[in-house]
Write a structure and sequence with these properties.
Layout (H helix, E strand, L loop, with lengths): L1 E4 L10 E5 L3 H13 L3 E5 L2 H10 L6 E6 L8 H10 L1 H4 L2 E6 L12 E4 L4 H16 L4
Parallel strand pairs: 2-3, 2-4, 4-5, 5-6
Antiparallel strand pairs: 1-3
Length: 139
């Protein structure tokens, strides 16, 4: 896990994104782009890392970016999928699935699917709109 924050002045508070991506290089690229866009970022490698983040993090993410569909299905996907809908700390955040191959996977209704390879600008636009929408929600 790594947590980073962009330094420098912002007119509004940064959004917090949790990125689940097992490919360390791609995770670093996504993290760097989000940091440059002014967001706080936490990175985990798998579904178990997302589930464990509930206990570690004080503030819950505004956005979940979950890379799925490459290779075998993560053994904790069913548990995470249920928690994304039912757990108070996970159900509030927006959800973007970075999808390689569907592999029969189903996703929570609020999930927006971004097929790999994707344009980083499109990902950043989705995250920004989700963070803006999250600020309007009651705490």
């Amino acid at each position: 896990m790594s947590t980073n924050e962009k330094r420098g002045p912002r007119a509004d508070p940064p959004g917090l994104a949790l990125v689940m991506e097992p490919d360390l290089e791609l995770s670093a690229v996504i993290r760097a782009a989000l940091l440059l866009d002014g967001h706080q970022v936490e990175c985990v490698a798998d579904c178990a890392g997302v589930l464990a983040s509930r206990r570690r993090m004080g503030r819950q993410p505004d956005e979940f970016l979950l890379a799925l569909g490459a290779g075998d299905v993560d053994p904790d996907w069913a548990t995470l999928k249920m928690a994304l809908d039912d757990d108070a700390s996970l159900s509030r955040g927006a959800l973007i699935v970075l999808l390689t191959i569907r592999n029969g996977l189903t996703f929570p209704a609020r999930a927006r699917i971004l097929q790999k390879p994707f344009a980083m600008e499109k990902l950043l636009a989705l995250v920004s709109s989700d963070v803006t929408a999250a600020r309007r929600l009651p705490a």
